[in-house]
Structures are given as C-alpha cells and as structure tokens.
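Pilot study result, target chain (346 residues):
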Amino acid sequence: MIADRVREYIVEIEKSSVSNKEELEAFRMRFISKKGVLTELFDGLKSAPAEDRRALGQELNALKNLAQDRFKEFNETIENGSEKELSATVDLSLPVTPGEQGALHPLSIVKRRIIEIFERMGFNVSYGPEIEKDWYNFSALNFADNHPAREMQDTFFISKSEVATREDVLLRTHTSNVQVRLMERQKPPIRSIMPGRVFRNEAISARAHCVFHQVEGLYIDRSVSFKDLKDTLYHFAKEMFGKDTKIRLRPSYFPFTEPSAEIDVSCFICGGSGCNICKHSGWVEIGGSGMVDPNVLENCGIDSNEYTGFAFGMGVERITMLRYGINDLRLFTENDIRFIRQFQGA
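Predicted structure:
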C-alpha cells in the first residue's frame, strides 16, 4: 500500500510545475511540511511488516529527497525571475539610497558647536595629555601647596609624594594644563581654545560625575583688557543660546586669574522671567573667567609687563543639559541608545 502511494507521489512531483510564490507554498505544504503527505507516510511505516520496513524506508527517503530538490529548483527559478523583473523596472545606474544613519552624542554636538563659534572668532583648537604632572595642572597655575584641590579627595593621583612636588602625576582636573603647555612653547599672540575630558574625585549623581568635559579659552597679547573678555563671551552667548541672550559677570576667585568672574547668561528657557531651570532667578551659570594672573604668565616665560591676557572655562555637560533640558548627568555615560537616538538630526 505505502509502496504504491510512493510511486504515485513520485510521478506527481516530477510532473509538478510552479510559477509563483503561492504555488511554491502550496507545493511545500503538500510534500515537505509537517502536515504533508511525507509525514503521513513515515507515520504509516510503523504499522508495516517488520521485514518490509527497511525497503519502504529507503523508498520514502528517496521520495523526501526528490521533493526537497524540486522545491529548491522551484524556489531558485522564482527568485531569478523576480530579479530579472526588478532589473527591468528599476534603473540600477541611479545612486544607492543611503540607509539609516546613527546619531551623534549630544556632548559631541554641543562641543562641535562651541568649537565652531570660537573658530569663527579666530581661536585655534589645542589639545594636551589627560595624565599630567603637578606643574602643569597646579603649580604653574598659581595653586598654593596647601590648596584643597591638591588633596586626595578632590584629585585622582597616579603617583604622589608626601609633600606636593612638580613631579607628582595625576589625572588632570581641568584643561588649563593645555594653556600652560601652549604658553611655554609659543610666543604671544596666543588665541586658542582647549576642549577635552577632565577628572575629579566626586561621587556620581544626577548633578555631578567623576568624568566630564570642558572647553577652556586663552587669549594673550599686548593690551588685552577685561572688555575684550566680556565682548568675546557676549558674542559666544548670542551665537550659542540666541541673539536676545544677555550675560553678566559676577566677581569670583580662581588662583590663575585676577580679577575673576563667574559667567551667567540670561535664561533662554523662560527669557529671564524665572523658571525651574534658572531657579527663578532669570540667570544660569555656564562657567568661570578672568584676566590671567601675572604670576601665571611669568611661570610660563611670558613677560607680564608687556603682555596681558584673559582665560575662561565652561562645562560641556552643563551647557548641553541647559540646551536640551536634560536633568540627569548620568544619562551621558549610560550608553542608552534610546537616549542617543533623540538627537538624530540635531
């Protein structure tokens, strides 16, 4: 009985023809699928006489191989036909449509924008090492030997002596080390910005992190004044946050600048009327600035009687959070692709 059915199916398969995907699927369902005739025949093999099972099994395997081979031939024929049909209707000489592209990290977007603004003002871009000596990170910048920033709870030291020396090695706490290196090897005029990653020994939270990014700036020449600093920052603020942005400089203290000032910009979210972003003050802080201290100029081999200069620094994360309304600093480093994709096309 099984042998007769096998011979009938062999004839049926050999005479079969397929011209489209629907017919191909019907062929597969009839002969190859788990609900097809082959499964039925193999199940019937169990009830065949024991002496006949070997021969019947070989015939069923031959039928199975024939069905699979024919299915493969039919499938290749249909696919080749589809390609020919496609080539007849599509102009293959046209440029390939680009696929979906990735998104830049928001910190990269803002850093590029900052660099672009200052480059248009005539600033160069300078880079320096993240692993630095005490001299470039502290001593040359007028930090006292007992300054709190030198303590282990504020700075990541790689090697540190009992008494602070210029040769102590640490992870830089600001990109001001690049300013020192630049002043040592280049004669004024100097006009450059220093973007980069910095490290401080702080607990990670929504408002603080042990790794973050800064962009610092330095301008040294004859007769550089505080007004030059204010005009530079005012132009940057308008380009970065909008033409109606205002700035204010609040007196402050930094070891490497004198006089020193904190940089505030009018809140671009509420227009200065007061909101949660600006804590209802109408102003948001973006960084620090000041005139380069004469001691710093002398430490770097520049005559402070002939040259003056200004310096400023701002946090890239701080500006990015303000610009995009981000309320958790940790989002920048958690590698959540859903967060990054929000900035596609920004």
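One observation from the pilot: The radius of gyration is 37 Å. A full batch analysis is planned for the follow-on phase.
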